[in-house]
Amino acid sequence: MTYLPRHPVNPKGLVVSLRRLLTLVLSLGVAFAFFAAPVSAASFVQRASTTSSLTTGTITGTVANTSGQPLAGIDVSTTGQNGNVHAATTTSSGTYSLTGLAAYSYSVSFSDPNNVYFSTSSVVSVTPGTSTTQNVTLYLGGTVTGTVTNTLGNPLSGIDVSCLNGGVQTTTTTTGSGTYSCTELDYGSYTLSFNDPHQVYGSATASVTVTAGSTTQNEVLIAGSIT
Fold first, then answer.
1. Which residues contact residue 23 at a Cβ distance below 8 angstroms, ignoring those fewer than 6 apart?
2. pLDDT in tens, 54-106
3. What is the four-CA torsion angle of 7, 9, 10, 14, rounded to 10 degrees?
4. Model confidence at 174: pLDDT above 50
5. Helix, strand, or coil here: 61?
6. What gap in Å lies between CA 179 and CA 60, rounded to an integer?
C-alpha cells in the first residue's frame, strides 16, 4: 500500500479563508435583498409622478376684470399638439391651473359662460418641468337675448337676427324654440333686425341699449307684413 505524503494544515490560513468566504456570502445576501426588495404602490406612484412632472409643464395664472377684481367661474381651455383638450375653471380667487402639458406653444382661451365679459386668448409656451404664469384681464361686454314668435305665440325658428351698432354687426339665427342671443357686445345703442329668409313673415326692427349683463328683447312677427 502506498501512502501519499501529507501536507501540514496551516490553521491561520484556514481561518482567513473561512472569513473571506463568510464575507462573500454576506455581500451576496445584501445585494440580493436590495434588488429583490418589493416596490410599494405608493413608491411607484411617487416615482411616476416625479417622472411626469419632469417631462410636462403647467400653465397657471389669475383672471381678473379691469378693476383688478378676480373673476370666478371663467372657463379656461387649450388643445395640445396631439389633440388632447386641457380645461379648467377659475376658482373664487380667480386662479386656474392647466397641468400635464407637453412642450408646445399653446393658445389658451378664456371665456365667460355668462357672457358678461368678452372672451380672449393668449399664446403660452410650455417648458417641461416648469410652471408658466399667464394672468389675464377680461373686459365687460353685453348680451341681447329674446324669443321671436308669431301672433299666436308660436316660436319661430330660423329667423335671421342682426344686432347693429355703428359699423359693427353681430348676426345669429333663432333656435327651434325661437330664442336668439347676440353675445359679447360693446356698450351702447343697437338696432335689432328680424328677418324671415323664407318670407313667410314680415321683417321687424327694435332699438335696445346694451349694458353689462343681459338685455332681453322679445319680438313678434306678423305673417305677410312688415312691422
1. none
2. 789 999 999 999 899 999 999 999 998 888 999 999 999 999 999 999 999 99
3. 130
4. yes
5. strand
6. 37
For residue 86 the three cell numbers come to: 386641457
Q: Rounded to 5 degrees, what angle do the CA atoms 115, 118, 122 make? A: 130
Q: Which of 204, 180, 183, 206 is nearest to 194 (CA)?
A: 204
Mark residue 54 as left, alpha or beta (left: phi above 0; alpha: psi -120 to 50; beta: remaining).
alpha
State the Cα angle at 114 between 111 and 118, rounded to 5°: 45
CA–CA separation, 227 and 212 (whole Å) = 29
H-state helical runs in the chain: 11-36, 41-55
At residue 151, the pLDDT reads 93
- Work out the burial of residue 19: count CB atoms within 10 Å of its CB; fewer than 13 is exposed, 13-18 middle, 19 or more buried: exposed
Share of the chain above pLDDT 70, in %: 74
- Average pLDDT of the chain to the nearest whole number: 83
